[in-house]
Amino acid sequence: MKISFTSGCNVENAAHSGSICAERTAMVKAISEGHRKFKAIAVTSNMKDHFCSPCGNCRQFMAEVNLNNKLIFNNDAINYLKFQFFY
């Protein structure tokens, strides 16, 4: 099994619906490069005391593409939290 990592960034736009979050950017990039199976998705931030949680649109997108896999949150304090999608 080949292991790879894909990163994404937040792309802001004055028209809010034209913006795309880092989570969806990374997943769309991975899918467009031919990746179809995901073992886990990690969301990192530079916050020390909190975790950056994906928005509702990203959660829905990840749930549909990454059904029943792990979502890992990480922050600057090197803490992490694991979340499992259930349907």
CATH superfamily: Cytidine Deaminase, domain 2
> What is the CATH fold-level name?
Cytidine Deaminase, domain 2
Compressed to H and E, one letter per element, the order equals HEHEE
Low-confidence stretches: none
Averaged pLDDT, please?
A: 79
How large is the count of helical segments?
2
Radius of gyration: 13 Å
Major beta sheet, strand line-up: 1-2-3
CATH class: Alpha Beta
CATH architecture classification: 3-Layer(aba) Sandwich
**Could you describe the largest sheet, including whether it forms a barrel?**
3 strands, mixed
The domain tally reads 1
Helices and strands: which structural class? alpha+beta
Straight-line N-to-C gap: 26 Å
Identify the notable features of this structure and list them briefly.
single chain; alpha+beta; Cytidine Deaminase, domain 2; about 90 residues
